[in-house]
Amino acid sequence: MARPHRPRQVACLPRTSLFKPVGVPARDLEHLVLKIDELEAMRLVDLEGLSHEQAAQSLGVSRQTVGRLLEQGRRIVTEALLKARTLGIEGGTFEVAPAPPCRGCGQSHVLAPGELPGTCPACAGPGLGGGRGRGHGEG
């Protein structure tokens, strides 16, 4: 019997849960599912620029698990793009983690669906979130 998955710590939920090619009714397309924990691994590594080890710490899993989440998530997204499939974002083993307090003013901020860690709404400083990677206009 397989060991149950440890819930991954997800910092933000996506703004939308379905993407599809333009001009083709969704009912005529094959549907693929990207799990929320796979998307979070992709966000941390590909958007925020964190290493696999840093992403693993943020998700609360091993570095090897991050590698598996990235491999599966990237495969699903690539297939959806190249083969014109709908892409649903749902499921997975996760918990929404509280955003860390702002490094500038110390206030906590609850992220809305689709909102990425970054600029603090209280002080307008770039202090929310753990990583400082490409996702914040730095390259």
Would you give an account of this structure?
Helix content is 29%, strand content 12%. It has three helices and five strands. Strands 2-4-3 form a three-stranded mixed beta sheet. The chain has a two-stranded parallel ribbon with strand order 1-5. Helix 1 crosses helix 2, helix 1 (36-47) packs across helix 3 (63-82) and helix 2 packs across helix 3. The longest helix has 20 residues, at 63-82. Mean pLDDT is 84; it is low at 130-139.
Features:
12% strand; 139 residues; alpha/beta; 3-stranded mixed beta sheet; 29% helix; two-stranded parallel sheet
The strand order across the widest sheet is 2-4-3
Helix content: 25-40%
How many β-strand runs? 5
Q: Please tell me the overall pLDDT.
A: 84
Q: Which residues sit in consecutive blocks of at least 5 with pLDDT less than 50?
A: 130-139
How far is it from the N-terminal to the C-terminal residue, by CA?
Answer: 45 Å
Number of discrete helical segments: 3
SSE class: alpha/beta
Main β-sheet: number of strands, strand sense, barrel status? Answer: 3 strands, mixed
Q: Which sequence of SSEs, written as H and E, runs from N to C?
A: EEEHHHEE
C-alpha-based Rg, rounded: 16 Å
Q: Indicate the proportion of strand residues.
A: 5-15%
The outline comes out as globular
